[in-house]
Amino acid sequence: MRLRLLTVSLVLAASAATAAYAATSLKTTMKTWKANGAAAADMVSGRTAFNEAELRRILETFINDSKGFETRIKASTAEATDLKARFAKLEADSAAALAVTAQPSQVKGRLSTIFNNCKSCHDVYAN
Ligand code: HEC
Q1: Does the CB atom of residue 69 touch ligand 1 within 6 A?
Q2: CB 3.0 to 4.6 Å from 19: which of 5, 13, 73, 103, for a disulfide?
Q3: Which residues of 35-51 are buried (b: 16+ CB within 10 A; e: fewer)?
């Protein structure tokens, strides 16, 4: 886990000197994603009231944070390329969900696609 975090942080950071900052910001973003993801899942499952504006805000956070990670990945190693593609996929899947927020039943399916991205990246990089 530590080693993986360091690996990903180095990919995200411009240099080893900024890797510590990258690790902190990665963790902070991930924690926000967890809370936001749970809030969105509760909403579309009817456990909490559906709030389209809040759902859109959450999806926009996934999109913007993913874009931020993609921009920060400058290396062209296989690992960097893979991570960039994973964030790009999360971004695209979040945009697909954003397009149907008026239909909660459709958002539900698209949210599970989003969560599959979380899980598949963690299986490789955060296990
Ligand atoms: C492209 C890869 C990638 C994607 C996509 C991804 N994560 Fe992560 N996530 C990581 C890595 C790497 C760590 C390990 C950080 C660490 O070791 O603390 C992590 C850690 C976490 C953690 C633990 C943070 C902590 O407290 O240390 C949570 C919670 C989390 N992710 C939630 C999510 C959610 C929710 C999503 C989807 C919306 C998501 N992640 C998508 C790479 C990813």
Answers
A1: no
A2: 13
A3: ebbebbbebbeeeeeee
